[in-house]
Amino acid sequence: MGKIRGITIKLISKQITGHDPFGAPILSDVPIMVDNVLITPTTSEEIINRQELYGKKAVYTLAIPKRDTNKWEDVEVEFFGERWRTFGIPEEGIEHLIPLDWNKKVTVERYE
After folding, report:
1. What's the pLDDT tens digit per position in 62-87?
2. Exposed e or buried b for every residue in 44-73, given b needs 16+ CB within 10 A?
3. What is the pLDDT of residue 1?
4. Of all residues in the chain, what percent carry a pLDDT higher than 70?
5. Of 18, 24, 69, 106, whose CA is between 20 and 30 Å from 51?
6. SS3 label, residue 20
7. Residue 34's closest CA among 76, 65, 75, 5?
8. Distance between CA 68 and CA 8 in Å, rounded?
9. 20 CB contacts (<8 Å, ≥6 apart)?
């Protein structure tokens, strides 16, 4: 049996690239490739809980690798040829108490 390995996804980060004539920041999309992310369909129980809590329908849950320092709250991600948006607060476990390579999970909804 082989080692479990995730896929590479694209995290779309918003960064300030300038200011308009009124001084408001101009934001641009900056893609960040994140390697070894596990993707699993969200369970029906989690779909109901997330919908009651956030009013959004969870489709997938992403397992984020340990030592990842990217911001995962309310950002866009791309995988499976589609664009998704994370929602809710990422759940994170204590790194040294979790035996595998992932210690954080975040839920995504379909984004068009």
Report:
1. 999 999 999 999 999 999 999 999 99
2. eeebeebeeeeebebbbbbbbbeebeeebe
3. 42
4. 96
5. 69
6. coil
7. 65
8. 13
9. 26
Closest alpha carbon to 85 in 71, 103, 73 = 73
The domains located in the chain, with CATH, are 7-110 (2.40.10.270)
- Rounded CA gap, 29 and 26, in Å? 10
Q: Measuring CA to CA, which residue among 91, 83, 88 is closest to residue 111? A: 83
81: its two tokens? 């040829």
Query: What one-character DSSP code corresponds to residue 24?
Result: P
Look up tokens 């759940």; give the residue. 91
> What type of residue sits at position 58?
A
- The pLDDT score that the predictor gives to residue 55 is 82
What is the model's pTM?
A: 0.84
